[in-house]
Amino acid sequence: MQKVYLFDKKGYFVGEDFDYGTGLPNNSVYEAPPEFEEGFIPHWNGTEWTQAENHKGKTVWEKDEGKEPKEKEWKEYGSLPENVSLSPPPKTEEEIKETRIQEIQSELSNIDTKSVRPTRSIEVKRADNKIKSLDVDAGLEDELATLSGLEAQALELRQELHVLENSTSIANQT
Questions:
Q1: For 33, which of 49, 98, 146, 166 could close a Cys bridge (C-beta 3.0–4.6 Å)?
Q2: Can you tell me the distance from the alpha carbon of 154 to that of 92, in angstroms, rounded to the nearest whole number?
Q3: With contact defined as beta carbons under 8 Å apart, do 104 and 160 qualify?
């Protein structure tokens, strides 16, 4: 029995089988395909094996004239057409702005959470100091420094957020 190499109706390698003495099965040849290369699949062109691009199963973006690119799974072997890309389209100015606004809001929320503990600790220590007439200790100074740093960070973020929320995109200005 001789090994045969099978290909689909478009010539793309699908596997191996054997010639059981009844002749060469349809869509098969005796010639072994080349070694698989990353991103390629062997392709029988009618006379020899070649390497064809393999983007099957990958996420691509298809651009139609005048429309937003559509994300989809590529289902074919071979080179991608000119209107199909493996890279997502660049984000619009508005998308970038919205993403940054969400990041700032998340950071501000984290700062608010981080500042609760130092604030409570300071309040307790101040109350304690009033009752006991003690001087401010180093722990209180550390808590005040932490809180001051968080407040400065929050102020910078709020200023950036204000600028972003009140800015108009370049497209809206024309």
A1: 49
A2: 27
A3: yes
- b/e 129-160 (16+ beta carbons within 10 angstroms → b): eeeeeeeeeeebeebeebbeebeebbeebeee
Q: What H or E segment, with its residue span, contains residue 51?
A: strand 49-53
Q: Residue 84: name the closest of 96, 70, 97, 98 by CA.
A: 70
pLDDT average, residue stretch 59-65: 87
Mean pLDDT of 22-27: 88
Instruction: Over range 104-118, report the average pLDDT.
Output: 78
What three-state secondary structure class fits 49?
strand
pTM listed for this prediction: 0.53
User: Are residues 80 and 71 in contact, defined by beta-carbon separation less than 8 angstroms?
Assistant: no
For residue 31 the two structure tokens come to 């010639």
Distance CA 19, CA 4 (A): 6
Amino acid at 164: L
- For the stretch 31-53, pLDDT in tens is 999 998 999 999 999 999 999 99
